[in-house]
Amino acid sequence: MTPCAVIPVYNHGDTVGAVLAALRGQGLPCFIVDDGSTPACAQVLDALAAADPVHVQLVRLPINSGKGAAMAVGLRTALAAGHSHALQIDADGQHALTDIPLFVAQAEREPDKVICGCPIYDDSVPKARLYGRYATHVWVWINTLSLEIRDSMCGFRIYPLAETVALLDTTHIGRRMDFDTEILVRLVWRGMHLVNLPTRVLYPRGGISHFRVFRDNVLISAMHARLFVGMLWRAPMLIARRWTRAAR
After folding, report:
1. C-alpha–C-alpha distance, residues 7 and 67, integer Å
2. According to the model, what pLDDT value does residue 44 have?
């Protein structure tokens, strides 16, 4: 197993340094994907990459293309560099950096599975965001005909790269906030299993959110509709797979 980390960044120059330091403290090579950030943030990223050019690679998108687009570029770059697994983590400091070694250790034990963060929230979480997630949870359970994915929206996870990039190369996956959910559903459709690992998620006061309520809700709704149609013709296979697992 040769793990690394992929960090999509869009104007999180104030927080990405701490995230990168935690990853490097665990010995993880890092791929920073600048998703068309402002010049000020781009300058911060340039400095971080220049400080450790052996272990930190900066990939830059010329315009803001969305989290999903940035992740797809980062995952492909990591696989081309010879890595077997990639840890996805947000640049805004919401994820529990102390849990990084737990995720890596779990991936070492079960390298053929996605290690997926299952959020534990404190009082800092906006209630609208918390309750709104349940609509996506229900649709994901419908579209996979299972409860295997406990939370598809947490961007703290480890992917087996070969299988994940193969999916990206053959299937259109959402390029913005719909990416995290859609890629998990489609990986499950392909027979990949998940490990749901509890992890704390914080919403720092004054933190920057790039979730655009109208645009991203429209994209997410369209994604659920596409997945539902895809589930319908896969339903016999998904049901048969569940029966086979239950019989073992």
Report:
1. 10
2. 97
